[in-house]
Amino acid sequence: MSDRLPASSDSHDPALEALVQRLDDHARAFAAERPGMADRIFVASRGELGASGPVAVIGSAPSSGAWRSASWRAAAAVVALAVSVPLVWRALTPTAIPSDVSTVRAGARMAELAPASHSEWLLVALVDDEAALHGASAWGNAGIRDADAIALTRGSSADLVTIELEELLAGEAGR
Amino acid sequence: MESVLSRAARGDEQAWRVVVESYSGRVYGLLRSQGANADLAEEITQSVFCTLAAKLRDYVEGGRFESWLFRIAMNRLRDEARRRRRHARSVGESEALEGLAGAAPEPGPAPEPEQLQALRAAMAQLSPADREVIDLRHVGGMSFKQMADHLGEPLGTLLARHHRALAKLRGMLDDKAGGAA
After folding, report:
1. How many domains does chain A divide into?
2. Quick check: is A72 in a domain?
């Protein structure tokens, strides 16, 4: 599968290349499990091409039968009702908040969400699930590799990113 | 691919066949790697493509087709897992959760190579978040940019997560190899 993918930052590491090769084998083994699947799916789905409205999906997979289309329709009806009631209510009542106030609030929210500086962007990039879950320092074992990854992303050099990160972390520690 | 998608959206069956042949195996593999058995994975893959065929007219070209496709597939798998867990509370759990137990290979003419078995055992120990990153990249064949769109994360974070997930997987395999030696 990796032949379709752009080169990764790990491509110089023989051990990781071997691992990626094993992952490719893992994917190919799945792909070879169901010969003729694409034909079956094409036959089952071409009738839906360009259709509109609720989708009734009939399966021909060995264990499937129908894909609970009746349940889907019922769920779609509930969702449509839930969406339409507030819309009708809003249409019938005056707007509570002037549009300029809404715009100001939206702008403030955007300001909250957007990193204010390049350093904050780097910090955001480093504080991922791993660090949050395990309390690991972003500057721990994986720090150098993170600098590589961020440098690759930003078209910058790993050294420059490392210096910026050190300054950022020193600044954070001094607060 | 965008032109093929456009033709398929206009009802061109040959273009639609190209779309199905290009992506159905990747969707199926992703579902299998995420724990669905072969029958369930094909069933969900088929339902995903039936939905796509019906909704393709509404697809706004923007290079996000794969993200859209894989999101539908993953949501379907999660819905099915939730449905089976609810069902498991009223009937025998093992019966209801059948099909979601893991990505064990289907019985085939040749046994799975030992290395592949070890890899799958190690992948089963990864956290769902790490597993998803590995699967989207190496089974789904998504680019990092597509994965960042799909998961709603900055590209740098995604690259770091992918690297760490690979490192964990490698560590597990090394430990297993060391223990066996």
Report:
1. 2
2. no
Mutant choice from B7, B44, B50 vs A, greatest count of A C-beta within 10 A: B50
Count the alpha carbons within 13 Å of A54 in the hemisphere toward its beta carbon. 15
Most A CBs within 10 A among B1, B16, B18, B20, hence the mutation to make, goes to: B20
Classify B110-181 by CATH class: mainly alpha
Beta-strand (E) ranges in chain A? none
CA separation for the pair A38, A52 (Å, rounded): 23
Give the 3-state secondary structure of residue B110.
coil
Find chain A residues with C-beta within 8 A of B9's C-beta: 50
A45·B154 Cβ contact <8 A: no
What is the rounded CA–CA span in Å between residue B123 and residue B168?
Answer: 9
| Residue A121 structural domain | 112-174
Global confidence as pTM: 0.56
- ipTM of this predicted structure: 0.79
Is some CB atom of chain B closer than 8 A to the CB atom of A137?
A: no
pLDDT tens per residue, range B61-79: 666 788 888 888 988 888 8
